[in-house]
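Pilot study result, target chain (212 residues):
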Amino acid sequence: MQETGLVPLFTHDKPDTALAVINACAAAGVRAFEFTNRRSNSFEIFRELNKHVRANHPDLLLGIGTVLDAGTTERYIEAGADFIISPVMKPEMAPVCKSAGVPWIPGCATLTEIVTARDHGAGIIKIFPGSVLGPEFVRSILPVIPELKLMITGGVEPTEESITRWFDAGAFCLGLGSNLFTKEIISRNDWETLRKSVLDALSVIRRYRSRK
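Predicted structure:
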């Protein structure tokens, strides 16, 4: 996440589509991918994705998102999740991840939640929803606790303006979902366009960092 600055997040109920998306992202240079637990068969698809990633993309970390409790956390860790992401800050998930040596990335929307997450062992904290909180929220809290590593999710766009705005505010990395995986790309199975879109976003981040 630190190396690339980008974590794509995606869900689908068809394994072939999910596999194609991961392949396109990996080909573009993604090294951390979040599959979200939002479908009735998400667990079964995640297991298929995990087998594929281990065999074909050994340098890609595959995590699971939209996890809301300790039981689901444990289940996905047993299925091979490299990291656990949640839209909420649920302390019961922390010891499960810690005992397994798996990063826990909870979602927070207030400074109190952020500090609580940090105190429970979260090394990276998800700021969600980014579209509501905005870059000024991040810019305002980092002077208070400058060591925070904040992942912004929700409303981030794969444009130079949006990416630059969030990194200028102090973001550690960005989570990109529906603005990257558009309905048009998915419906047309246009994986080459997806690869190029992801590559463009990663290039924006590299250019930004090279200027700093």
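One observation from the pilot: The mean pLDDT is 97. A full batch analysis is planned for the follow-on phase.
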